[in-house]
Each structure stands twice: as structure tokens, then as C-alpha cells.
Amino acid sequence: MAAMRRSVLLALLAALLLVGVLGFAAAATGDVDLSEDLTEEEREIMSQVDEGGDEEDEEDVGGSREPADEKDVVVLGGKDFADFVATNPYVLAEFYAPWCGHCQSLTPEYARAATALKDSGVVLAKVDATQHAELAQEHGVEGYPTLFFFVNGEKRSYGGGRTSEEIISWVKKRTGPAVRILKSASDADEALDFEDPIAVAYVENVEGADAEEFIAVARVEDGVEFHMTADAEIAKKFGLTKKAPALVLLKKQSEKVAHFDGSFEKRAISVFVVENKLPLVIPFNRETASVIFESEVTKQLLLFANPEEFEKVRPNYEEAAKSFKNKITFVLIDLADEEVATPVLDFFALDNEKTRLLGFISEEGSGKYLYEGDFGVDSIKQFSEKFLAGELTPFRKSQKAPEEVGQMYS
Where is this region: Disordered (predicted)? Predict the structure, then answer.
């Protein structure tokens, strides 16, 4: 029930943002029927926001947007689906509903990805779940859109993003080389010209056991580019001066370099990458929403601040974040970005009058805890420790009167 409640809250936040990021992330894995387990208040908010969102989606699809060219997307149904996924080595299949706004938003991105991947042996297909309900039920489809990736007929959940670039990246990582082998100084220079974080391993043999452990992680971890070398001189360019095997993760945010010091095996490497690939403080926006709230780390500290105020508290907030990696996700909600901040403030019953820090447990319906102290490092750490230990009193605020609620959504 906690997992279901958490998924519903994520979908509700997504609806409030009028973007399918969180709802898409939940539905893509077939985990949640968004109509279940809502309170009456949540049902009302969801229905009102969805009504406005659908109109906007329809206007965009039929107005300013270019129509999607789906010439490379294969349309499948109940009779040919099983044979198709069995006879094609790689198939990404989308189960959709024609009336679904999130599906409509995905359509042009999915079409572009299909065209980009058509020569790679990967086929993108779609199934109208309203026309082929038995097939959708057979595959456990409970929300739209739901995507599955079939490898030689074996079904796997799709866990990537919703842009064409994210779809292409996710698929390529699971069908092609997950790790780039660095063989020359020019290879190293290219790798160092990065935007996304990079993980670089120094191994004795790029075909040895250590390499296999590293590759196994690279195939499943998104948001990181993976490189590997057996050349000591190339390894030095990345600060890898110890005896092989060694591993470093580099990123452009604060805490730019992280060195691995564990046992060189899949589990330990994976934990290291997950703990270090994200910035110490994650800005909340449409792109990062699913990263924050779909993480296995269910506790978040949400800092509501405008850019000027954030710069004042940034050093202390980031320093505190270092002590709670993989335990608490430290988040920034920019109050100057009203499009994002306003619905989140409303969701937590807060105003935007001052900088605030809120603890939130995404697997609980009422797990929110308001911080009232100063923004010194020690104070933030003490609050975080009590948050982890369950020693805080939940923050509650009276709901708006019924007539006020009605006016908000009339």
C-alpha cells in the first residue's frame, strides 16, 4: 500500500505541473493505475487539472506543433504482436490510449526515435490498448503510456525518459557497447569534453573479469557515460594513478571528482555510481522530477528559495548533503520559476514569502516536516539526522475552505 500511495502522489505532482514526467515514469513500468487509491480531495484536483491539461495538449497537437511522422513506427495488434516480438531481436513497444494527453506528447518524440534507430536493428512499435484490451491486460498494462522492451521475445520494463534523445540513449546502451574503450590520448581528450557525468575505469585487461563487472553496471545505469582503459598513461589523464583496477567519476557540478575505493565488483560499483552521478543538490524541474521522486531514496529535503537567497545558503546546504548521500536527496525549488514553484508550493500548502526547508517522505501520504532553524551546516545536519530517525513532528496546515477550493479550479 505504501508503494501504491507513493506512486499516486508522484502522479498527482505530475498532474499539478501539467507535465507527464512523473506519471509517465510510473506508468512506463506498468506499476500504477492512476485512478486507484486517491483521496476525494486528490481525485478532485486530478480531474480539474487533467481537464485543463487535455485542452492544452489537444491545442498543441492540432495547432503549433508539426504533425508527427510515424512512418517508422510499426502498428501492432493482438494477432501479430507475439510473432513480431519473437522474430525481431529488439522491439520497444508502446501501449497507448488515443485520448491520453501524455501519449500524445510522447508521439512525436517516439516517432523521431523510431527513425533514428531503424538502421540499428531496433524496431519501435505501438499498440492501441483501447482496441486490443486483452493484449494490454496480458502484459499487465495499468496506465498509459506503458512501454516494454523485448529482447529476443523476452519482455523487460522500459526505464528511460520521454524525449527522443533519452529513448535513443536508453536503447543504444542496451543493444550496443555500453562502455567506450579509450586507446589513445585523443580518445581521452574527447571523453573529457563532457556534459553528463562520466565514469572511467582503469583495468589490467579490457576483456578481463574486472572489465566485465564494470560493463555490467554500464548496461543498466543511465545518466552517465562509461569509459574504460588498460593504458596507465591514459588513466593518469583522469587522475587514476593507483594500481588497476581503479575507478573515478567526474561531473561538472560541485564535488567534481569522486574516487572509488571499494571492491571492484558489480554491486559496489553500482552503489558508487548511483551515489555520485547526481549533483549534491538537484534543481527541481520537469526533467529531474522523476529522478528525484522515483529514486529508491524516499526521503527528500526540499529547499524553497529564490536564486539570490540560495547563493547565500548554497555552501552549507551542499556541505550537509555530502553527509547524507543515498539517504536523503537534497532538492532546490527555485521560487523565481513560478511555473514550477507555484504548483509545488500549493501541493505542500506553503507560501512563497520566504526561504523554507521541508522534509518530505514520498512513500507516505502525510510525511512532510517543516524546518524552522537557521541555515548553518550543523543545524541542517541535525535536522537531517532527526528526519532520518523519525524524530520530527509532521507539518500540517488547515485546508482551504470548500468555496476557496472551488474558486481555484473554476
Answer: 36-69
The question of whether 367 is a catalytic residue gets the answer no
Q: Going by C-beta distance under 8 Å and a sequence separation of 6 or more, which residues neighbour residue 280? A: 253, 254, 255, 318, 321, 322, 330
Mean pLDDT of all residues in 138-150: 91
| Sheet of strand 257-259: strand arrangement | 179-181, 225-229, 198-202, 246-250, 257-259
Instruction: Catalytic residue, from 101, 143, 161, 359: name it.
Output: 101
23, 100, 161, 367: the catalytic one is: 100
Q: What is the pLDDT of residues 382-399, one digit of tens each?
A: 999 999 999 988 877 654
Catalytic residue, chosen from 30, 102, 143, 359, is 102
**Residue 148's beta-bridge partner residues?**
93, 157
Q: Between the ranges 16-30, 98-112, 148-162, where is the mean pLDDT highest?
A: 98-112
Question: Among this protein's residues, is 102 annotated catalytic?
Answer: yes
- Which residue carries 526561504 as its cell? 355
In the residue annotation, 101 being an active-site residue is answered as yes
Whether 132 is catalytic is no
Interval 372-382 mean pLDDT: 93
Of 30, 103, 160, 367, catalytic:
103
DSSP string of 84-133, one letter each residue: HHHHSSEEEEEEE-TT-HHHHHHHHHHHHHHHHHGGGTEEEEEEETTT-H
Q: What is the DSSP string of 48-87?
A: HHHHHHHHHHHHHHHTTSPPP--TTEEEE-TTTHHHHHHH
- In the numeric block, which cell numbers belong to residue 143? 496506465
